[in-house]
Recover the amino acids of this structure.
C-alpha cells in the first residue's frame, strides 16, 4: 500500500507541492490504522492521494477522475434507504463511508479538490448535506460540466448508476 501511495504522490505533486513524501510516510507509520482505511478506499476505486489543505492539515482523499466505481448506485443515507419502498439501492453513501472509516466531502472540500484537477466530468458525487436540507428530505451532490463545478440537489432517496461519493480521512 505504501508503494502505491508513494507512486501516486510523486505523479501528482500539484496536489501537495510543498510536501515531502518522508513527512507523509512518517505520519502514516504513526497511524497504521489509517493505512487500513486507505486500503479500503483504494479497493473501491478511490485512487487516494494526500492533499495539503490551506490551513496546514493533511488529508487523504479520493482522487479518482470519476466517482469511485465501487461506491455508486447508492442513495444518500440510511433514513432515505429505509423510506424507499420501490427498487431500493444496495445501500447508502453515508453508511458506506462510516463503515469504511471516512467522512463524505463537504461542499467546500469538494470545490477545493476541483482546483487540483478535473473530477466527475461524467459522474457525480454525493456530498455532506447540511442538516436543514436533509430535514426536508433532500441531499446534495456535485459534478463538473462545461468547465465549471456545480452543486445540485435531489431527494436523498434517489440513486443513479453514475452517482457515488468521495471521502477523506485526516492524516
Amino acid at each position: 500500500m505504501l508503494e502505491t501511495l508513494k507512486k501516486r504522490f510523486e505523479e501528482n505533486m500539484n496536489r501537495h507541492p510543498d510536501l515531502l513524501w518522508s513527512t507523509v510516510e512518517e505520519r502514516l507509520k504513526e497511524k497504521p490504522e489509517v493505512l487500513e482505511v486507505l486500503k479500503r478506499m483504494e479497493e473501491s476505486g478511490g485512487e487516494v492521494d494526500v492533499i495539503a489543505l490551506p490551513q496546514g492539515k493533511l488529508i487523504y482523499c479520493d482522487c479518482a477522475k470519476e466517482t469511485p466505481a465501487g461506491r455508486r448506485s447508492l442513495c444518500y443515507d440510511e433514513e432515505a434507504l429505509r423510506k424507499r419502498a420501490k427498487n431500493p439501492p444496495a445501500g447508502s453513501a453515508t453508511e458506506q463511508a462510516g463503515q469504511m472509516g471516512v467522512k463524505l466531502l463537504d461542499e467546500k472540500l469538494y470545490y477545493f479538490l476541483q482546483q487540483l484537477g478535473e473530477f466527475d466530468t461524467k459522474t457525480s458525487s454525493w456530498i455532506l448535506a447540511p442538516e436543514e436540507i436533509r430535514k426536508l428530505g433532500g441531499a446534495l451532490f456535485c459534478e463538473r460540466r462545461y468547465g465549471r463545478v456545480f452543486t445540485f440537489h435531489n431527494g436523498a432517496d434517489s440513486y443513479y448508476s453514475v452517482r457515488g461519493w468521495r471521502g477523506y480521512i485526516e492524516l
